[in-house]
């Protein structure tokens, strides 16, 4: 039973407002004494010709509101406040979770629809740094969220594998490349020769000429240059894949800029046929004044295409091959204007798919009192950040294990540290709105009592421990549908059940706004409410065996809900810590 929908149906029946409008207006009151759901009566004032508070008072007295799942309905000012029967609510929600397990929150609303999520998109032959982590973690989470709602998700990694930098790399490799170093650590070696090229280029203009010539030969498909480019690309992908595998990230498509470059001429021809190209300072552009954005450059003054042209080609390719319902770009906020120009150009050209494209921007990454050794002076490598987080986590859980005289082996501690350490980094990226800047702090990230992944994972592990102890004592949780779940009507129990009930709606809101933090906030609230319940109520103590088994069922539901939510964020849980 969907209690919110049931309340909406009651209001719709009383007011003759359509169900969709009522459901949109229903609110969750900020305080418990104001009920579980509230309907603001302002919208009825005009048609009913009464003050909203009078309307609320009249509706509250209706006999039609007498339902076994409602304890009472009250008017409070202009609001109609609904109080659900706690036992009925607990039985319904906990039964639902127990029957679905970690599939709780899953829906079919996206069935038959395709969502493309473009994320990560690192540049070939360059290190994977913490900035790339933002797009990678956000995109990975959004992909799982959309899948949870029944969408077919196509994960796109639009690699930066095209451009003049490859002419520079080819020149640099021929002059200074070390084959053994390249085989051992390709990214480091390619970065070394790339940096050296720029240093030497300042005093040797012939290097610039050589780079241009090599890129032209690459564009023309010359065998030797293409072979080197392919080698650099393949070696880089091997390194990236190791990192993706560690983080549990996968992709369905690695078509990068080079793939769409060959389609750029088709875009130019299409725009010419539609008479949309105009000359501006020697370049060919599409004027977008009616959309309130600057012109979109299609051809540079030398007649070559740019990445905007390739992005247009990519959208048309995706529309033709995937017939997407959404095409999402998880790219930093500084690229917002670029995407406005690309989408507006498509719209002006008459393509309906333009309205299905969306830029999902995000903020910057900053550090607080954190130092890293990096192979380039101005970047922080993601691998180093993950390694450091895992190492610090290991020391914390090892000390805790020793204090408890735990019999866990060192290998077990290291496996737990890997999951918790990675989770700590991932959660830092998704615990707040994506457009807010991230400030890394070890004290904050690894706080086992704060708004962190370690706190969520520890809560899960603690709850699993309770269930194991209960089993040893001969107690097991009651099953889905048991009337004993009606006993979960105490303040702390009910508060915990309500946070679990909020998770499916949080998942829907996360997809609607492309904000994974909606899920992270919901999971954090479940963990907080459970720990209040744990600290204020005896789960395994007391003489009421029936209440004990009902509370164990709530523990099981909490585990399922936390695991379902953290999975959507890209975070793994552990059974013990």
CATH homologous superfamily assignment of one domain: Isoleucyl-tRNA Synthetase, Domain 1
What gross morphology would you assign?
A: flat
Strand content: 5-15%
State the separation between the terminal residues, measured CA to CA.
Answer: 36 Å
Strand order of the largest sheet: 5-4-9-10
The top-level CATH class of one domain is: Mainly Alpha
CATH topology of one domain: Isoleucyl-tRNA Synthetase, Domain 1
Unreliable stretches (pLDDT < 50, length at least 5) are 372-377
Oligomeric state of the chains in view:
single chain
- Could you report the average pLDDT, rounded to the nearest whole number? 92
Characterize the largest beta sheet: strand count, sense, and whether it forms a barrel: 4 strands, parallel
> Rg from C-alpha positions?
28 Å
Tally of helical runs: 22
Alpha-beta content class? alpha/beta
Helix share, percent: 55-70%
Give the number of DSSP strands: 12
The CATH architecture designation of one domain is Orthogonal Bundle
Outline the structure in words.
- This protein has 577 residues and is an alpha/beta fold.
- Among the domains are: 3-84, Gyrase A, domain 2, CATH 3.30.1360.70; 382-569, Orthogonal Bundle (Isoleucyl-tRNA Synthetase, Domain 1), CATH 1.10.730.
- It has helices at residues 3-15, 19-25, 45-48, 52-60, 86-100, 130-148, 164-176, 179-184, 186-201, 205-219, 223-247, 257-261, 264-273, 307-322, 336-348, 382-403, 410-430, 442-445, 453-472, 491-513, 517-536, 545-569; strands at residues 37-40, 70-76, 79-84, 114-118, 152-156, 277-280, 283-286, 296-299, 326-330, 357-360, 365-367, 438-440.
- A 4-stranded parallel β-sheet has the order 5-4-9-10, with helices on both faces. Strands 1-3-2 form a 3-stranded antiparallel β-sheet.
- Helix 5 packs across helix 22.
- The protein is flat.
- The relative contact order is 0.11.
- Residues 372-377 have low confidence and may be disordered.
């Amino acid at each position: 039973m969907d209690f919110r929908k049931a309340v909406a149906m009651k209001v719709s029946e009383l007011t003759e407002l359509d169900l969709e409008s009522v459901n949109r207006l229903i609110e969750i009151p900020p305080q418990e004494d104001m009920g579980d759901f509230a309907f603001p009566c302002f919208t009825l004032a005009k048609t009913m010709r009464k003050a909203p508070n009078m309307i609320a008072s009249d509706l509250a007295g209706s006999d039609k509101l007498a339902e076994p799942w409602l304890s009472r309905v009250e008017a409070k000012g202009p609001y109609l406040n609904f109080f659900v029967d706690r036992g009925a609510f607990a039985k319904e929600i906990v039964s639902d979770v127990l029957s679905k397990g970690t599939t709780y929150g899953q829906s079919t609303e996206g069935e038959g629809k395709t969502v493309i999520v473009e994320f990560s998109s690192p540049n070939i032959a360059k290190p994977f740094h913490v900035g790339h982590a933002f797009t990678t973690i956000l995109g990975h989470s959004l992909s799982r969220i959309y899948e949870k709602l029944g969408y077919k998700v196509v994960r796109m990694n639009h690699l930066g594998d095209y451009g003049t930098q490859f002419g520079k790399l080819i020149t640099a490799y021929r002059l200074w490349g070390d084959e053994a170093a390249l085989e051992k650590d390709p990214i480091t070696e390619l970065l070394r020769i790339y940096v050296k090229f720029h240093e030497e280029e300042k005093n040797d203009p012939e290097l610039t000429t050589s780079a241009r010539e090599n890129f032209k030969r690459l564009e023309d498909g010359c065998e030797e240059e293409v072979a080197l480019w392919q080698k650099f690309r393949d070696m880089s992908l091997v390194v990236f894949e190791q990192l993706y595998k560690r983080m549990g990230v996968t992709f369905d498509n690695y078509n990068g800029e080079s793939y769409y470059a060959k389609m750029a001429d088709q875009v130019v021809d299409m725009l010419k046929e539609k008479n949309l190209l105009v000359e501006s300072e020697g370049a060919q552009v599409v004027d977008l004044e009616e959309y309130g954005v600057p012109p979109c450059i299609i051809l540079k003054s030398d007649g070559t295409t740019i990445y905007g042209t390739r992005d247009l080609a990519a959208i048309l390719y995706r529309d033709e091959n995937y017939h997407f319902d959404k095409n999402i770009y998880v790219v930093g906020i500084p690229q917002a204007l670029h995407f406005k120009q690309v989408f507006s150009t498509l719209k002006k050209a008459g393509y309906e798919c333009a309205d299905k494209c969306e830029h999902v921007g995000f903020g910057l990454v900053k550090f607080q009192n954190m130092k890293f050794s990096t192979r380039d002076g101005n970047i922080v490598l993601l691998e180093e950040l993950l390694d450091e987080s895992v190492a610090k986590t290991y020391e914390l859980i090892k000390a805790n294990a020793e204090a408890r005289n735990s019999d866990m082996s060192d290998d077990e501690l290291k496996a737990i540290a890997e999951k918790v350490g990675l989770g700590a980094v991932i959660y830092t990226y998704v615990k707040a709105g994506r457009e807010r800047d991230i400030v890394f702090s070890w004290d904050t990230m690894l706080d086992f009592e704060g708004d962190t992944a370690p706190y969520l994972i520890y809560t899960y592990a603690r709850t699993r421990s309770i269930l194991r102890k209960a089993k040893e004592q001969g107690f097991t949780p009651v099953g889905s549908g048991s009337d004993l779940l009606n006993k979960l009507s105490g303040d702390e129990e009910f508060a915990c059940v309500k946070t679990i009930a909020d998770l499916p709606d949080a998942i829907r809101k996360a997809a609607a706004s492309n904000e994974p933090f909606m899920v992270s906030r919901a999971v954090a609230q479940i963990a907080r409410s459970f720990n209040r319940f744990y600290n204020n109520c005896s789960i395994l103590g007391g003489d009421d065996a029936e209440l004990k088994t009902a509370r164990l069922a709530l523990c099981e539901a909490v585990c399922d809900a936390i695991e379902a939510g953290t999975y959507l964020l890209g975070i793994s849980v552990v059974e013990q810590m």
